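FAQ

Q: What does a record look like?
A: Structure on top, sequence underneath. For example:
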């Protein structure tokens, strides 16, 4: 492949894309058949296909994955090339995708196809089932050796905690998950994330049936809605809840029909909506949260999320206490969304109350793996003034039909208003921070034609990337264990010499490094 794409080649790429549109107008994004070869052209191709997200390589998932771990934990990238070549390419892998990440957090493992004729046959689709099995065993062995080299006994941090495999290696992902106990991400998890943001939710039909039942005055049966995904019914998701009672709608993480698997809700005593907004580190709240996390793990959950976007304040604390993956907010997706866009293009973040989110915006974005200096890329707007949405603050049943009409008009106005600005790029993606907003995601996708990410796309992404029997393990170690162990015991209780007081926004700046 050429080192650069000149004007003629880029025009050819554009013409190819337009031919694809003539056959399938509902294309939601652009990827490539051999991500590591196309990587160096990522920015160039985005420039000629600005109307769709461009994700040519699985590396684009790095920001989202790293957001779940602190700076003392590493991600292993398995890609094609000699070890010497891929090591030298590490900074370029990040810069070509406009990813801001400490290079030391990325370990890399090269597979040199020139060293073994079986790999050449594999890349030409000429291997037998026996060859594939042998190559899969070889990849696993290479990864295990790399982990043994990096995760040496007595080492305090910078352990490998997750794996990304590049294009054409995804068929070995399940084998790696089983053999390493780590989550393994590939082009399939990447495509699934972006396609789910542009597709109707699995509970879409259930929403229609729910409204029909209401009109017929029949009781709804949300627990009978199922996802077309083949999730095992035995899998359970832990759901930490605020002290906040309200009737959830389909799409809300509190609704039992939202996911294709069972949820186990647990209320955190003392954690009201107001305390979550301010990121309160009241010792009683933290101890109650730790107790509920342990209860959920005893119940066999495969991961833990929260029912409020402001629970992002507790992401690091929950990771310290838990032995299962924790993804407390939809904001975790923000940096990976940004990596699929041109630098000037922006993301619209919708929240229940902009006045509450704005003061802590930079802190929450930092916890999501986003550099504070880049936070202008994210346009934050609140829904607190929309007709019918006041029911959210009042913990009342929301008139979803009324709110849906209002929120659709509201978002279209924002997109038009921001698109008219000369000093900023247009909005190309939407992120629903509030956990009550996914109910309206399908209508926003239809009205705007933009990808819409929310708490549902976030939870499903991590669920699909990890082998079920590996979720409830001690694979996932805490963020910055030194900080947390100095201030909290294993049960999440503050130690006598604890230096943390007030709110997480006040205290966790020292921890975030």
């Amino acid at each position: 492949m050429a080192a650069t794409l000149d004007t003629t080649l880029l025009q050819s790429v554009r013409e190819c894309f337009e031919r694809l549109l003539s056959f399938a107008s509902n294309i939601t994004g652009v990827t490539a058949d051999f991500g590591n070869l196309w990587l160096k052209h990522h920015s160039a191709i985005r420039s000629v296909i600005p109307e769709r997200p461009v994700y040519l390589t699985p590396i684009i998932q790095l920001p989202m994955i790293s957001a779940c771990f602190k700076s003392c934990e590493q991600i292993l990238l398995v890609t094609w090339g000699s070890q010497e070549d891929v090591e030298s390419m590490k900074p370029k892998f990040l810069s070509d995708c406009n990813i801001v990440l400490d290079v030391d957090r990325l370990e890399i493992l090269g597979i040199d196809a020139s060293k073994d004729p079986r790999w050449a046959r594999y890349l030409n689709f000429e291997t037998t089932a026996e060859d594939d099995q042998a190559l899969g065993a070889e990849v696993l062995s290479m990864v295990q050796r790399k982990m043994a080299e990096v995760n040496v006994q007595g080492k305090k941090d910078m352990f490998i905690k997750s794996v990304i495999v590049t294009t054409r290696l995804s068929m070995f992902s399940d084998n790696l998950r089983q053999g390493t106990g780590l989550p393994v991400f590939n082009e399939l998890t990447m495509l699934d994330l972006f396609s789910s943001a542009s597709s109707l939710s699995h509970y879409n039909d259930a929403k229609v049936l729910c409204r029909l039942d209401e009109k017929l005055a029949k009781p709804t049966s949300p627990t009978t809605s199922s996802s077309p995904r083949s999730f095992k019914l035995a899998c359970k998701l832990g759901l930490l809840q605020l002290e906040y009672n309200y009737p959830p709608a389909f799409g809300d993480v509190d609704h039992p029909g939202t996911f294709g698997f069972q949820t186990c809700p647990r209320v955190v005593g003392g954690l009201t909506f107001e305390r979550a907004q301010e990121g309160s580190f009241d010792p009683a709240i933290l101890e109650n949260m730790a107790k509920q996390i342990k209860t959920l793990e005893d119940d066999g959950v495969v991961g833990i999320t929260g029912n409020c976007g402001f629970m992002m304040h507790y992401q690091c604390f929950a990771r310290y206490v838990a032995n299962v993956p924790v993804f407390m907010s939809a904001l975790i997706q923000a940096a990976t969304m940004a990596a699929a866009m041109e630098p000037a293009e922006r993301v619209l973040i919708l929240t229940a109350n902009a006045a509450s989110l704005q003061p802590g915006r930079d802190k929450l974005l930092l916890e999501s793996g986003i550099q504070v200096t880049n936070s202008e890329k994210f346009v934050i707007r609140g829904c607190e003034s929309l007709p019918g949405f006041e029911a959210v603050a009042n913990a009342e049943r929301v008139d979803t039909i009324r709110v849906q009409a209002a929120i659709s008009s509201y978002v279209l106005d924002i997109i038009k208003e921001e698109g008219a600005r000369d000093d900023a790029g247009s909005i190309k993606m939407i992120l629903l921070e509030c956990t009550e907003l996914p109910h309206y995601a399908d209508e926003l996708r239809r009205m705007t034609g933009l990808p819409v990410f929310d708490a549902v796309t976030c939870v499903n992404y991590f669920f699909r990337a990890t082998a079920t029997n590996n979720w409830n393990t001690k694979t996932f170690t805490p963020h910055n264990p030194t900080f947390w162990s100095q201030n909290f015991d294993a049960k999440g209780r503050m130690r006598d010499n604890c230096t943390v007081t007030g709110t997480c926004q006040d205290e966790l700046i020292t921890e975030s490094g």
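Q: Is there anything notable about this one?
A: The chain has four domains: 7-48, 58-196, 204-329+462-485, 331-460.
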